[in-house]
Amino acid sequence: MKTIWLVCLIVSSLFLIGVVFRQKLSWSWIKLFALQLVAAALALYLLNYSGIISGLEVPLNPVTIGTVVLLGIPGIALVLGLQGVLF
Q: Domain tally for the chain?
């Protein structure tokens, strides 16, 4: 069963790469996404180590960075709110 999932992942990744290389619009989208990814990681890093919010630390992992990339500043508030409620 794991082999089937691995084959599906590889085939879908190859198709996605093919679409990205075929479309010129995709390159601008990838550049924008990469810029937002770096900005989100930098914002979380600065938030953690600047001491603006004492007692709360947002971990730098793919889930939190992805949330901040998709939602922006409300994503940081969401992660902090979930951390306050769950922990």
A: 1
Statement: the pTM of the whole predicted model exceeds 0.70: no
Are 69 and 33 in contact by the 8 Å Cβ rule? The answer is yes
Range of the domain at 36: 2-86
Token readout for 31 is 């550049």
Question: What element of type H or E holds 52?
Answer: none
Q: Give the tokens for residue 14.
A: 């190859």
- Residue 72 backbone zone (phi > 0: left; psi -120 to 50: alpha; other: beta): left
Rounded Cα distance between 51 and 49, Å, is 6
Total residues belonging to the chain = 87
How far lies 57's CA from each of 27, 36, 42, in Å? 34, 21, 14
pLDDT single digits (tens) 48-57: 888 777 777 8
